[in-house]
Write a structure and sequence with these properties.
The complex is a heterodimer of chains A (about 230) and B (about 450). Chain A has about 230 residues and is an alpha+beta fold. Chain A has helices at about 5-10, 20-30, 45-55, 80-100, 140-145, 160-165, 170-175, 185-200; strands at about 15-20, 35-40, 55-60, 75-80, 105-110, 120-125, 130-140, 150-155, 205-215, 220, 225-230. Helices cover about 35% and strands about 30% of the residues of chain A. Helices cover about 45% and strands about 15% of the residues of chain B. Chain B has 17 helices and 16 strands. Chain B has a 6-stranded mixed beta sheet, with helices on both faces. In chain B, strands 13-12-14-15-16 form a 5-stranded parallel beta sheet. Chain B is elongated and about 80 Å long. The chains are: A alpha+beta (about 230), B alpha/beta (about 450).
Chain lengths: ~230, ~450
Amino acid sequence: MTFEAVLAQARAEGRTLLNEVEAKQLLRDAGVPVTNTTLATSRAEAQAQAEAAGYPVVLKVVSPDIAHKSDAGGVKLNLKSQDEVGAAYDAILESCLKHVPGAKITGVAVQHMAPQGTEVIVGMTTDPQFGPVMMFGLGGIMVEVLKDVSFRLVPLEEKDATQMIDEIKGRPILAGVRGQPAADIGALKTAILKVAEFVEKHPEVKELDLNPVFAYPDGAIAVDARIVVAEA
Amino acid sequence: MPFKEKGGKLYSVQLDPKEIPGIEALGVTNVTSMADIPEPIDYALVAVPRQVSPFVLKDLIANGANGAGFFTSGFAETGEELGIKLQAQLVEMAKGANFNLVGPNCMGLYLPKAGVRFNADAPVSDDGRVGFLSQSGTHGIMFSLVAGANGIGVSRCASIGNAVVLDVSDYIDYLMQDDETEVIGMYVEGVRDGRRFFETLREACKRKPVIVWKGGQTEAGSRATMSHTGSLAAPSAIWEGMMRQCGAITTQNLDETIDTMKALLSAKKPRGNGMALLAQTGGQSVSITDAFARAGWDVPAFTDDTYAQLGEFFNIIGGSFKNPLDMAGTVQGKTETLDKILSIIEADPNIDGMAMELSAMFAARQWKANPATLDSTLDILKAHMTASEKPFVAILHPAHEMEYIGSILHKFHERGIPVFQSFERAASALRRVSDYWASR
């Protein structure tokens, strides 16, 4: 689906939040490395998609009514067989409907479970004075507690992406500490620049989060994605 | 009156000719209406009751005037309906006529070359190299005075007030194209059109160094800007990111702003990070080293050749020349010894720049007793600065000799020797400038 088509569909449904499957498809088309994620609307579909994605897989509920997927029991990790996928699919639907009675369930997102890498986040927010602003930081505690993030205004030049990565306090972590491998800085730079290009091309995008992105010694991939668009 | 001495023609427009007593005696023609001014006005300073300001603007536009600073206040900054309405009226009239309205609610322009000032104590000079704009009248005036006291000449300075016709970006746009302005500085609390500010600043930074002193960088401070200029606070992390993206040099106060300009204008570009630190005594040699190291400078060992040369004459009883230097016992007020030390260190390939303490404790006594020794010392420093490709900065803490030190600073300024009042101020000013050149 094109950006326009996804936007039209979201707006027709009164949504400003694109679901994970929509967001990832658009980002993937824009050249941002994301895990391939498909939408299953039945148990059998989920199992077939899991086979295609390759085990282990992750299942996540897709619902406009459920903001906190984990709290509602809507996320199942590290599933290793068709049987496990089938059981997880059933469990997700049951748990989500119990937590949020009457919730509209669009389906379940199926993706290969990417191996753990160094967690970083790449995001974009809209400042009322300065417009679209890109954000970069290390994931988890570094961003939540220490607010160790860097910002640049869209559009970005290559040096801006380099500086965003270099100026965070946790930068040595990306160079590899305590036996951890170094992160592929070039791949992170590309991810930042591709996201910046994407939001520059689509001014309807008001917020975007890739959280987390797993950085590896060779490459990087976003395992979750969230896009908020402007109201019609 | 410098403005008249420089050939400027000044008119006073007062409904009551006796409003300003003695103005005719100063040789200023008083007229009772703008219509009586027989030629186009270059610049007017308007200080009238706010209700009258639209009428004055109408007359200025009719005259074909180039622009005006509106000292008059009581507009949107009051939050009152009348003030907001009057301001909107000024904006509509000025924009409709493409009129350069500075302010309102400001001190207007400081144009030293033309002799136009907003404070009678501000210097008049023809060769100012720094352009400054200020969202605060006080900071504008303070800047013009403190820059002068530090030997920094101003090309043009604007107190921009409510900036409702000409905004921050317009002034930056002007200063970046102004050939007489080599360095731009500004005090800002907020900007109206954030995108235009970003794009204009980024362009300006490509052309010349721009120093941005942002008011309201803390949460409490940003509440203060809200009531001062009504500026919307930008999250400081986003502001900082934008500054780096543009390539601006950021400062947090007037002192840092002045210090950075001084280093930019008077010190050579550092090409590396190794500093030679020359102190007069042991304790100060430690303090200067801590200050420079904290600011990110390296204090490397000299080469063997340098040590061999210094070792020939350096008094190591109560002194040291490892880097830092503890050298008063060796120099003992002899300028030729100082000259020799400077020459040896300057030639050391490990060294990219020099910072030297001048001690008010020792030197002032000698200089007071024999003023020629001050001049000869400064001449030696000046000669080294001129011959060297490496930056040199001097530090002269006023200590207990505040009045005397204040009276001799002009001797440094006349020779273009950058002098700072503390190790920390010298170290961080040079750091900012070094980072700036490294990022180019």
